[in-house]
Every structure is written in structure tokens, then in C-alpha cells.
Here is the input.
Amino acid sequence: MSAVLLTGAGSGIGAATALRLDQLGIRVFAAVHDPSDGEILAKQTSEKLSVHQVDVTDADSVRALITEVDTALGEAGLDAVVNIAGEGIAGPLELLPIDSLRHQLDVNVVGSVAVTQLALPVLRRAGREGERRGPGRIVFVGSMGGLVSVQLAGAYHASKYAMEAIADAWRQELDPDGISVSLVEPGPIATPLWAKAIQTLDRLPANDRYAERVDAFRESLRHASKHGASPQKVAEQIEHAVTAERPKTRYPIGAAAYVVPKVRRLIPDRLFDKAAQRVTS
Here is the structure.
């Protein structure tokens, strides 16, 4: 692999992956939302890594990003697209502003599709080089939360469930082209996403019906932010999806990501609901 486009490279899993791929000598096009994050990343990486500011919810911004990558690569083409850009919006669905729900889906789902759609011609061009470089790779960073849902995170779960469906459909559609599609499914990871999710809770209107559960959920998010697994563990699996001769279709990461979805399929809904309520009690 010699050229990878990576969104969400400004922090957390994205920054860890950008650093790891750069250390392997891969040319990384690191897309960030906040230019200041890009400046920090650039100071830690080699000249092979280039930073590109992008808003994945803005069609013009996404087109500009792909144009920059396409121009820089020339005839070489792109070996992989890794979609990491995402947000976590928390709160009871009853109180959640509809615009917040739209934004959650726009960033986590529509943005990933928009980037991948426009990058596909550049991926296919790399695949034409046959023996030197194989067909392109597409990687989506989903979540264990795309397989199991708990209250007060419905919008986030909806976005991750959607990525499960999109990865499955695209894997089938692109199989004739030899382009692999992998879905990374981490359990709790210590990233800034949880702190940002707490901010969305803090902006909700006061409501006695949900107050105790919101307070408890806020604490569970703080715990995940401090005690979740390292983003580097996710970066290791993304490296495999990008570089392995035969990448996996799914990469669950962490014990919870392996165990909880399996248990969920085996027990009745109401029993699982009672167990899940411990997260917010």
C-alpha cells in the first residue's frame, strides 16, 4: 500500500491511525475538520503526510478534498479510503433537537458515503496497476454501538447501525471489482468523542423525567473517556484492513465488542433492556 486517504485524522482514532500509517512509510492524505488539529498532526509526522481541511457534511468541501488527492497522485491512484470522521450526540430522543439528529446522521453516515463515492474512481485507478498494487480498500469505522443499543444514545446508535448496512451493501456491490470493504467495530475507546457527547447532554433543556438517567449517563461517558481502550488498538486493526493481502470484513475490537453483541442475540429484548439500564442508573 502506498497512498491512503483518511478522514477524521485530527484526534482520537484518526490521529492514531495517521501516525501509524505514516510510520510505515505510507503516503497519508489526512483530512481534518479543525485546522489547528492538522497543525499538531503535521508536526508529528513525516513529509509524506499531507493535511487537508474538510467538512464531510459539505459537498463542495468533499469535492475539493478528492480533487486535491487526485491531483497529487496523478496516474498512481489511491490504495485505500478510511472513513473515521464522526461525532457522538447523546440525549433522550424525546428531547433531542431534530437538527441534532440530522447532523449526527450527516456526519457519521452521509459524510462517509459522500467521501467514498467520489474517491472510488481514484481507487479503481490504483487497481489497474495489477501486479504492483492490488485493488483498492475501503474501511469504515463503525462501533459495537452499531450492533447493540442503549437508551440516551439513540441518534449515535442509529448512525452506527446505518454504517453496518452500508458496509454490507457496498461490500457486495464492489466485490466484482475486487475492492474490499471492511468495517471496524470498536468497543469503548478513550477518545475526545465522549467529551463532545457530554457537551450535547449539557445543552439539552432541563427535564425532570430524564434528569437522573442523564446524570448517570454523563458519568458513564466520562468513564469511557478515561478508561476506554487505547485508540492505537483500533489503528492496529485499521492497518491490517489497509495492508493485509486478505483483509477481514469485520474487525471487532475489545472484549465487549466480541461478547455483548453475541449475548444480545441470545436473550429476550426485555431482559436485555433491564441489563442495559444499569448503564444509566
